[in-house]
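PT: before anyone asks, these are the final sequences, not the draft ones from last week. 936 residues across everything. Please model them as a single complex and drop the result in this thread when it's through.
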Amino acid sequence: MKVLRDLFRDYRFALSFCVLCLLLVLAVLTIFSPYDPTLWGVVPRDLKPSREYLLGTNSKGQDVFWQATFAVRNSLVISVIAGTVSRVIAVLVGMVAGYKGRLTDRVLMFVSDSLLVIPLFLIIVMLAMLIRDKMNLVTLGLLLAFFGWAWDARVIRSQILSLREREFTQTAILSGTGTLRLVLNEYMPFATPLVFSTLINNMSWAIGMEMTLAVLGLVNLDIPTLGTMLQWAISYQAMLLGYWWWIATPVVLAVFLFVALYWLSVSISEYLDPRTRIQRVGV
Amino acid sequence: MEKLLELDRLTKVFTLGSVISRVRITATDSVSFYIKPAEIFALAGESGCGKTTVARMILGFEEPTSGAIFYNGKKGTKNEKVWFTEGIQAIFQDPFGTFNPLRTVDRYFFETVQNYKLAGSKEEAIRLIDEKLRAVGLSYEEFSGKYPNEFSGGQLQRISIARALLTNPTLLIADEPVSMVDASLRMSIVNLFKKLKEELGVSVLYITHDLATAYYVSDRIAIMFRGNIVEMGPVEKVLMEPKHPYTKLLRESIPEADPNKRWDTVITLADTEYEEYLRAGCKFAGRCPDVMDRCKDEVPPDIYVDGVLVKCHKYAGE
Amino acid sequence: MNQTILRTEKLKAFYVLDVLGTRKVVKAVNEVDLEIRENEIYGIAGESGCGKTTLLKTLYAAIEPPLRLIGGKVYYRVNGEEVEVSSLSREEKRKLRWEYVSYVPQGSMSVLNPVIRLKETFRDFLDSHVSGKTKDEAFAIAREHIAALGLPQKILDAYPHQLSGGMRQRVTIALAALLKPRIIIADEPTTALDVVVQRGVVQLLKDIQQNLRNTIVLVTHDMGVQANIADRIGIMYAGKMVEEATTEGIFGDPLHPYTRYLINSLPRFGDKTTRESVPGSPPSLINLPSGCPFHPRCPYALEICKEQMPGFVKLDNNHKVACWLVGEGGNGKAS
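LR: through. Structure below.
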């Protein structure tokens, strides 16, 4: 609680937190949606925003507002899957590599280095093309998760390497603590702040990646996400025909999401860094 | 003679650098000594003399390149970890590093009790912990639920000793236990070792660079220099009548807390420590005031002079 | 008696921290009066966290947030005139530094630039203070200086990492003495060094002082080093000076109970009698006890000790002490 109060003192945190809450409310609203988001022609086409249709309707005969609620929900689901799964991989790989050392370390770091040096985007595009038919929220999330852990695993590994040399590790060993408990009890508290701040970064990366893939037409276009909404709007020439509400909705939502996530991660990592904390508080 | 712990020609070689410029550093070179029950044995020397490596090998944190360690006559190997943790416990140099800053200190106590099955219930565990804390002048109330930064260095070092005592060890390895403790509190730690020895019969391997406290507290002492024990024997003899030229230099270099005993002679220092490690023969030959020709290429033998082991050519053939 | 060269008046320097919304004031230097004379080695001793390093920073006028000068003044005697340091401009301070007063911070071995040879470091140093020297002249000055201090000349051609820690420490001290400053302030120059090397550093500091006949302010918690090198010693406790006397006075006739404990707890060769530590723990500088900060640990504490801080009283032969048991406040010595 005290932590939250301190964080809220930073206007960036407070603001981005509110924006995220609003977006979450949008996502929750999907429960009350009067329309099935995958169906076409449920409402009149190409209507401007009005009292009845808050954000207008699109050329597919869908209500843009309710589409947007689904888009936000699905994009968030993808990013949360991608973020958490990649964090779990990063923590596991980083801790095992750092604590075990020797051959295990070399093999795991070879894998993560390979992921770091290959042109990630091309690989993702290729894989997305291959499994396009089976693409849904979960597979897309997992695909992104698989490519998002390498760097953070390296950071955690180096943290463990230095913690392993600290004397409290020896105290724990002399206390009879086994390897697994030692890593979880002694090292995890040091890795947690890092996991949280990178989680947010990873989530915004996943959202951006999903949008890119969608615009390229490499995901299942029937599932509304911020990316597919944009893709449909572009392919129906919404800009040219003057249906600005159709294209502006996903863009504005995405911008809000990105900025909110970015500010959140910046203010959290500043909070966790004691040096900038002193500066920020001002003496 | 009863020997609690015995080290037999313990050697540790570290290999540094890449394949092209590989350097082998002998951190400890055939180090042999033993510790008797209820004895404080000091292992003294400057940084880089290998004393910490000895401690790490005894505790199993480092595998010796060659040589063996015997505890109660049993040989310790890598697979038998239990023999040392129950009987041999350790305390470390930095009291603030001994405990994880993000965890409360009492967690280590409960973990030790749990892992070694020292108590059946929580009440029993607390009673045991309180008993050990009282032995070092603290109590359970003033320590439970607190983080390391809520204690002073001296308190933490005593807490660290209390944790080590939980398993009723027979030997305590103390690696520079007072070098980071405030001068005004140092003696409380050192006096504790005496008390443990006298009241509980615990032996202590006191690793230090501080010869003055080593003299004060220990029964026997070994002086290490660049991986070798150069002089070993009863502390009165080794420190009051040093025989090896290095011990003499070390002894004279201790600044005595007496303004009437100031240094008046000038000393020479080694420019780089690195060269001394690689030196063949006696490693001290480069700085020794009594250096002879054979010191430079012949490793000096271990010679017993007046009950003291000296590794020096000066005493050969007498 | 020599003239005073460095003087402080009721010097107060606190760290003002804002830790997560709560204001914390660390009273690191609390009303310190010092008079340090020309041509002497003045030792300051005390435990870690008693404000020694902060005192040095204020003496050197290197005050940076969160450290703040709360009150009091620091005077230097420059060319026969007393100068109040905080009144100087940034430029004037810069000129005084290294030429008049130099500072060897703790762990200063790491200040040497690792990628250039030491002679280049010496030349850079000369360049920034004495202009108009050619490269060869600068090297010649460096070589002469190093030789005069008895250090091997070949170290000038070495990179810092090629030297041992002790040699690096001595090179930094030599560097601090290069411009022949009148005051050298050294913070724990012998800590973390081996005893033999430590002796070399002490030897070097003594040599410099004898050559330049200047003032060295030496902070170290090691009473053995103090006994060996200092002419006068000030004992610091919880941000305050509690005793000051000649080295013989401190070791032979300590008056403050804290000093007595400190001296008596030192182990000595040839004497295995039991030594006792100071009871209790050092106080936190954030939350100081009332009155005399030592009273919770002092076995002789009186009622007044809990209420009022005793003054820093000068007794005969310039022995100064801040204790109610001694001097005008008390009824003679504590025993």
